[in-house]
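[step 3/7] inverse_fold.run input=structure_tokens len=188
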């Protein structure tokens, strides 16, 4: 299934026209998350952004806050730098290295946190003048909680040159998350 999707994306992207991808943006989103093994879920908001420091490198930061079942609050954030390389006019390869932080606040038990490093790689596809798709894989190694490998898939539709709206999904070893995002570009 994934290989069929990749071939389909490559076929469509070959006929698309894009002037390069913009790595200067602010993302705002609302989403849901489910911890599969614990049968716990919730919803929350996310904010993040990216800033291009050169044609090939960018820095980024993401913050997520969720209200889960049983009045549990979850907070995550990551910050790092990324490398982006154009494979064609319509496809960019993106790799990043990040610092990861996770905190859970549980009533009657207090809070627990963990931190570590993340390594990700993915592709951005321009499918036509207004539609962008992305897919990636990310490995996170936290000091106390161990490691996790996650996959992501998303799409953005450009309503204007400076605003896009999209959907995304992230699937890890024990989590599933879905979000509706608005992206505001501030330069290309």
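[step 3/7] decode complete -> sequence:
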């Amino acid at each position: 299934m994934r290989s069929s999707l990749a071939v389909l994306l490559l076929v469509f992207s070959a006929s698309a026209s894009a002037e390069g991808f913009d790595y200067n943006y602010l993302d705002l989103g609302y989403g849901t998350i489910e911890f599969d093994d614990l049968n716990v879920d919730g919803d929350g908001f996310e904010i993040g952004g990216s800033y291009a420091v050169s044609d090939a490198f960018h820095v980024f930061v993401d913050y997520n806050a969720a209200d889960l079942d049983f009045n549990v609050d979850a907070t995550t954030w990551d910050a790092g730098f990324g490398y982006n390389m154009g494979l064609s006019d319509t496809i960019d390869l993106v790799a990043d290295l990040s610092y990861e932080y996770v905190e859970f606040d549980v009533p009657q038990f207090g809070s627990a946190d963990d931190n570590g490093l993340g390594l990700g790689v993915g592709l951005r596809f321009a499918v036509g003048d207004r539609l962008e798709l992305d897919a990636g894989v990310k490995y996170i190694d936290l000091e106390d909680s161990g490691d996790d490998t996650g996959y992501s898939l998303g799409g953005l539709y450009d309503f204007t040159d400076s605003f896009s709206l999209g959907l995304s999904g992230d699937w890890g070893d024990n989590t599933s998350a879905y979000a509706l995002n608005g992206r505001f570009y501030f330069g290309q």
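[step 4/7] annotate
The chain has one domain: 2-185.
Residues 8 and 15 are 12 Å apart (CA to CA).
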